[in-house]
Design goal:
Blueprint lengths: L3 E5 L3 E8 L2 E4 L9 E2 L1 E4 L4 E3 L1 H4 L9 E3 L12 H7 L5 E4 L5 E7 L2 E6 H20 L5 E6 L5 H13 L3 E7 H10 L13 E8 L4 E9 L2 E10 L4 H19 L8 H20 L4 E9 L2 E7 L1 H7 L1 H6 L1 H11 L6 E7 L6 H11 L12 H13 L9 E5 L4 E6 L5 E7 L4 E2 L1 E9 L3 E7 L11 E7 L11 E9 L5 E16 L15 H17 L13 E2 L4 E2 L14 H8 L16 E9 L2 E5 L4 H41 L10 H18 L8 H50 L10 H26 L11 H19 L12 H10 L11 H28 L1
Parallel strand pairs: 1-11, 11-12, 13-18, 15-19
Antiparallel strand pairs: 1-2, 2-3, 2-4, 5-6, 5-7, 8-9, 9-10, 13-14, 14-15, 16-17, 19-22, 20-21, 20-24, 23-26, 23-28, 23-29, 24-25, 25-31, 26-27, 27-30
Helix pairs in contact: 3-4, 5-12, 6-7, 15-16, 15-17, 16-17, 17-18, 17-19, 18-19
């Protein structure tokens, strides 16, 4: 199982992996841990990340960036219309009203949905992670802004499915940062002690997010969140670029805003200047060569001027900071520290505002760029069964209050708040309705004015197959509503409660529904709790009284990690809770009386869900399209690699023909080959610029047909002398052995003469071959093909050794030492007269049975002792 965390930002992305040694932020193919959130569509392929960003100026209308802001939104959305002005590519309206992007891909104009484009970026991050860990990546945790609504979160989950990623959790940026901060802290207060309160401020490229968190040992609880979704570093960049655009208009008579390429260059230079002003308060220059109409432009700005121009933006920072204090009910003195992340928090004016609001200097203990990705990887490790992670419970919150609306039996509109602002999440609630027929529940956000989204509508949920009870009255329907681990509102289950006939205690007729026996005290306690629940939380939907659904007392806090809708783990307590919430089978639902048992069974009801997200068919089509694009990218990469191989060979050989390989090719052949290389180079940049892969393969093969002999002659000139030297040494060694044998050397006198004749014959043959080939090679020029190859020489050497070595290395036979006759006679004298065989051992044989008889009783008594001990 892969353990990967992706921080998908509006401007840049980061990837973190959980390894045995901890969390590591990995680098892309350019050895950069920051990957730009950029997709460039071309005539032959698409590129993402750094390569795409490099094409922002050259392929301006087909290079997509800033698209994350459009995720899950309609074309007529005010935010989309505002963003559209600053985007160089075309934003279009789909038939369902969603915003999309139109761009040229493979020579044709195509329209892409925003989740498709986000999926392209996720595919790039996935490939980078797979290249680093060497295996397929499937499971991951994705970061998401804490102000995202239900529709935007569902759209991001759709994008993950299109890129074939299994998102275990959508994790709020600030929550991920808090996890990365708290899980390594060893000095957190004990669970029963007062928590440590920390404020996290994340100001990135396009948004400001704030969260107040309470830490105890092994526990993180988010108290409140706030945000400004339209305030980030890019707004400061635009302030600077607008100032320079006006200045250039007056000074150079050019309008930078009229040309997308010029505006993009100006924004890039403005961002660089902003970063320089963050560390230098002096007057700093801005210079751009050939900006427009071959005009070089220059200007200057200092930090004080920038802060004055951005005063309105800086004032907006205070509101979310003060809002999070108010919602969390914390005072300045209750806050232990203020942790800042995000590139825009490096601006000195931003730090000053944070210090002013919270009364303390902001802390930078976390990596301001990589903290979110690291927190996501930690969450993925917690959810993964392959890693053992320190126990750490995480409780998040819902950003906006949610209510349910429905029509009563009198066709009157009723509503009820189910989740308040900053309500803990994940969280489940059980609602009770009284109905005789199917009914609809609509979920909406309560306060549209505080919502950074024009439509407060979340979705409609239809509860089907509701029928009257056997008495013809309204049936009791229990509906479970939940904000799941992704922060998405769901209706996991709905059940109809059917009462069974009452039976006297002890009487059993047929199979009995599932129930749990209770003591008298337990019955009283449960009855009291149910009565209190009826008073406080439950408004029963009675047609006569016109009272509708309400929350029951079986609400429980969701565990730190759970399995609700999307493959995350659940604690045993949560599983027990889920099982008792009327999913399958027959379960007890009413308190028991003393004389009879009220028995019920739960009937699962189907739910139709109507929310703003892709259908299964749409996702399948998008997955198929993404697969085709991935295949096209791979084919184009292989084609370009083949082309580059030809180009590389041309440059490499042309230089070496007049240097390293000069003496290994004739003058005539060199001129011919050199001309062919020049012609190939010209062909590459003209007719051969856009050929198929096989054409480049054939072209390279034709070049190597002429070039390989030259290269081989060079290589043989390096290897052949050494091979001849080794072969000559082997011949000399065999000759030396033959000379010693002729001199009757005792080292070889054990070898038969006929074997040595075989050695002598082999030596003569190989010596003759050696002399012939050496003389032939010495008569050839370096540019001529060699008379013999180095591998042939080594083969002949091996053949010689195969024949000769077993003979000349044959070991001498071992000689047994002669027997000493005197010692044999002495041994016979000591033994005295000869006795019949076996006579000397007869007394010993007679003694052995006696000894055995003496030992046997001891062994028997010992075994008896052992048995007694046992």
């Amino acid at each position: 199982m892969s353990v990967v965390g992706f921080d998908l930002g509006n401007q840049s992305c980061y990837i973190a992996l959980a390894r045995a040694g901890g969390i590591e932020t990995i680098a892309n193919e350019y050895s950069d841990r920051c990957t730009p959130t950029c997709v460039s569509l071309g005539e032959k392929q698409r590129v993402m990340g750094v390569s795409a960003k490099n094409q922002m100026i050259s392929n301006v209308k087909n290079t997509l960036h800033g698209f994350k802001r459009l995720l899950g939104r309609k074309f007529d959305d005010p935010l989309v219309q505002a963003e559209k002005v600053h985007l160089p590519y075309e934003v279009v309206k789909f038939q369902n009203g969603d915003a999309g992007i139109k761009a040229n891909y493979l020579g044709d104009a195509e329209e892409f949905s925003i989740p498709q484009v986000v999926a392209m970026m996720l595919t790039k991050l996935k490939e980078t992670a797979e290249a680093n860990i060497g295996r397929k990546v499937v499971d991951c945790v994705l970061s998401v802004p804490n102000f995202y609504t239900d529709t935007e979160r569902r759209a991001l989950l759709d994008a993950a499915k299109i890129s074939e990623l299994n998102c275990l959790r959508l994790m709020n940026d600030t929550t991920a940062v808090a996890l990365a901060y708290g899980i390594y802290k060893q000095d957190l207060p004990a669970p029963e002690e007062k928590p440590r309160n920390v404020i996290f401020v994340d100001m990135g490229h396009s948004a400001l997010q704030v969260a107040a968190c309470a830490f105890n040992k092994g526990k993180l609880k988010v108290l409140a969140t706030s945000a400004d979704p339209t305030l980030g570093g890019r707004d400061f960049d635009r302030v600077i670029s607008n100032q320079f655009a006006e200045e250039f208009k007056k000074k150079y008579k050019i309008d930078a805003k009229s040309k997308p390429r010029a505006l993009l260059r100006l924004l890039a230079e403005s961002e660089k200047l902003k970063k320089q002003m963050s560390v230098n308060a002096n007057l700093l220059p801005l210079n751009i060569e050939c900006f427009m109409e071959d005009i070089d432009v220059s200007a200057k700005m200092k930090r004080a001027d920038f802060e004055e121009m951005a005063a309105d933006l800086l004032k907006r920072i205070e509101a979310p900071l003060r809002q999070v204090l108010a919602d969390s009910k914390l005072k300045k003195e209750d806050v232990e520290s203020v942790e800042i992340i995000g590139g825009s928090t490096r601006v000195p004016a931003v730090k000053e505002i944070i210090k002013k609001v919270f009364g303390k200097d902001p802390s930078t203990t976390l990596n301001q760029d990589e903290a979110v990705a690291r927190g996501c990887a930690l969450q993925c490790a917690i959810l993964s069964p392959t890693f053992r992670v320190r126990e750490f419970a995480i409780t998040d919150v819902t950003a906006y209050p949610i209510k349910l609306t429905w029509k009563s039996s009198m066709e009157e509109e009723s509503e009820m708040e189910v989740f308040s602002k900053n309500h803990q999440a994940p969280f489940s609630k059980m609602l009770t309705f009284y109905r005789q027929e199917p009914f609809d529940l609509e979920a909406v956000y309560i306060d549209p004015k505080s919502l950074p989204y024009p439509n407060p509508y979340i979705g409609r949920f239809t509860i089907n197959k509701v029928t009257p009870n056997p008495q013809g009255e309204s049936s009791k329907v229990k509906v479970k509503i939940r904000v799941n681990i992704h922060g998405v509102l769901t209706l996991p289950s709905a059940s109809m409660v059917e009462k069974l006939p009452e039976q006297p205690e002890g009487e059993v007729n047929g199979p009995e529904p599932m129930e749990t026996d209770q003591t008298e005290d337990q019955k009283k306690t449960e009855a009291g709790e149910e009565q209190n629940a009826d008073k406080q939380n439950e408004q029963q939907a009675n047609p006569e009284q016109n009272q509708e659904a309400a929350m029951e007392t079986d609400q429980t806090e969701a565990p730190k990690t759970e399995n609700d809708d999307d493959a995350a783990r659940a604690t045993p307590e949560e599983e027990k809770k889920e099982n008792t919430d009327a999913k399958n089978g027959e379960k007890k639902a009413e308190p028991q009386s003393k004389k009879s048992k009220k028995q019920v069974k739960m009937i699962d009801l189907p739910i139709d869900i109507h929310v703003n997200r892709f259908t299964t068919g749409q996702i399948n089509l998008a997955v198929e399209k993404e697969g085709k694009m991935i295949m096209q990218d791979k084919q184009e990469k292989d084609r370009i690699d083949s082309k580059n191989s030809v180009e590389e060979y041309v440059y490499d050989m042309r230089n070496k023909l007049y240097e390293r390989y000069e003496k290994f090719i004739s003058e005539k052949d060199r001129e011919t080959f050199s001309k062919l290389l020049d012609d190939t180079e010209n062909w590459l940049y003209e007719d051969g610029e856009d050929e198929k892969k096989q054409v480049y393969i054939d072209k390279l093969a034709s070049l190597k047909k002429l070039g390989n002999p030259v290269v081989n002659r060079y290589q043989e000139d390096e290897l052949r002398p050494k091979a001849f030297e080794e072969f000559g040494s082997a011949l000399q060694q065999v000759r030396k052995v033959l000379d010693l044998y002729a001199q009757k050397d005792e080292k070889y006198d054990h070898i038969p003469e006929e074997d040595m004749k075989k050695v002598e014959k082999a030596l003569k043959e190989k010596q003759k071959w050696y002399d012939t080939k050496l003389n032939a090679q010495n008569q050839l020029a370096p540019h001529q093909n060699p008379a013999v190859m180095s591998d042939q020489i080594l083969t002949e050497k091996k053949n010689l050794e195969t024949v000769c070595n077993p003979i000349i290395n044959k070991p001498k036979p071992k000689v047994e030492p002669p027997k000493d006759d005197k010692k044999e006679e002495k041994k016979e004298g000591e033994s005295g007269d000869a006795k019949p065989e076996g006579a000397a051992t007869q007394p010993e044989q007679e003694q052995q049975p006696q000894q055995q008889q003496q030992q046997q009783p001891q062994q028997e008594s010992k075994s008896q002792e052992d048995m007694d001990l046992d």
